[in-house]
Amino acid sequence: MKINKSKALYKKACRLMPMGVNSPVRAFRAVGGSPLFISKAKGSKIFDVDGNAYIDYVLSWGPMIVGHAHPAVVKAIKSAVEKGTSYGAPCPQEIELAELVMKAYPSIEKLRMVSSGTEATMSAIRVARGFTKRDKVVKFEGCYHGHSDGLLVKAGSGAMTFGVPDSPGVPADYAKNTLTLPYNDAKAFTSLIKKEWRSIACVIVEPVVGNIGCVLPKPGFLETLREVTVKHGIVLIFDEVMTGFRVAYGGAQKKFGIKPDLTCLGKVIGGGLPVGAYGGRNEIMSMVAPEGPVYQAGTLSGNPVAMTAGIETLRIINNKDAYKKLEKSMQQLEEGLRDAAAKAKVPTRFYRAGTMFCTYFTDSEVYDYETAKLADTAKFGRFFINMLNRGIYLAPSQFEAGFMSLAHTASDIDKTVSAAFDSLKKN
Ligand SMILES: *Cc1c(COP(=O)(O)O)cnc(C)c1O
Q1: Residue range 221-260, pLDDT digits in tens
Q2: Pick from 276, 166, 263: which is nearest to 206 by CA?
Q3: Is 118 in the pocket of ligand 1 (CB under 6 A)?
Q4: Which residue has its alpha carbon closest to ligand 1 atom 5?
Q5: Of 13, 72, 147, 266, which is the most buried if we count CB atoms within 10 A?
Q6: How far, in Å, from the CA of 210 to the mean position of ligand 1?
Q7: Does domain 4-69+320-426 have CATH number 3.40.50.2300?
Q8: Residue extents of the structural domains in the chain
Q9: Could you tell me which residues are beta bridge partners of residue 263?
Q10: What CATH class does 71-317 carry?
Q11: Which parts of the chain have pLDDT scores under 70?
Q12: DSSP summary character for residue 390
């Protein structure tokens, strides 16, 4: 596969931006390749500047659940743009998207739109602190909640891929308010809370951890978080930026039947444009400015074009048939990848929740940060490059989830599975 133009652009980009990129994992550093520069995307495929096509399982890291450049989404965005791209004043689309979201997430009684997942989690924590008048936050190792200072402690995603779980530049004074625990360890959680609850404002968790691959909650883990936090007046925050509309239309809280106090959303709700949201119990959300004293604002928040992309995307997936189709495609891929690994005799573990998934190159069970780290990243790196050369675009790190879209066809998935078999055999 020729990627000369991408290579030339990368060289130039490296002089202009840190390692040539505007978000770390894009740089392919973890897999030892040169990143592709993308010129367009349509349906299940992305196309690089050299004219190569790839079946895409990154989907912009989750948002493109209906596929790239879906005609209905494109049409709606175009017509929104004609009416101006930002007003800095309320617009009807904010109400429409809020209503769509709240119908799917009954735990959200009031919400605030922001422009990224990072803003959503950062702001949710601020309001949880304002509400409880406590300072400490409990998070779990490997969970990634965006890059705000206090949350970059033992984080997943790029922070894990590059081995900098605790970023320089985060003052120890901030980090000391973040208590971290192993994911899926209900016992450790219960005993920490028993000791420290008086100073703990909130517990934030990815209900399925997508930022160390795909780690499922053990039965009872999320239930324990809910029970114990209620008992001690601690705000439970589900970070559903990735799982929202992904593991089910109603997110992980619907799938596992647990009602958090606050929920953070992003990715899918923006339909490929920058949108995040946080919301939950009215009593807590009423603390947000200007209704309450907890300050949070955004010049482009609730932007009419971004709202429109979200509304159109949710409209397309707001029915059983859409999720049936997604599930069918995902099953086909799961069976295919499991078979391919078995036939190629490469030990792997496959996990998924709805249409987020991960194949770990390990033969032991993965249930937290430490067990995910046992995966063979060199093997993954070779697999990644072999897949890329066969026209399959996976996330360039062992510790990221893959995603399925409505646009992926049975033949896309067949091609993916046979590419996986060839790649695994060569591994
Ligand atoms: C992607 C992600 C974020 C951060 O969202 P950005 O839009 O990249 O700031 C936060 N939490 C989770 C669970 C995510 O997957």
Answers
A1: 999 999 999 999 999 999 999 999 999 999 999 999 999 9
A2: 263
A3: yes
A4: 117
A5: 266
A6: 10
A7: no
A8: 4-69+320-426, 71-317
A9: 238, 279
A10: alpha beta
A11: 158-165
A12: T
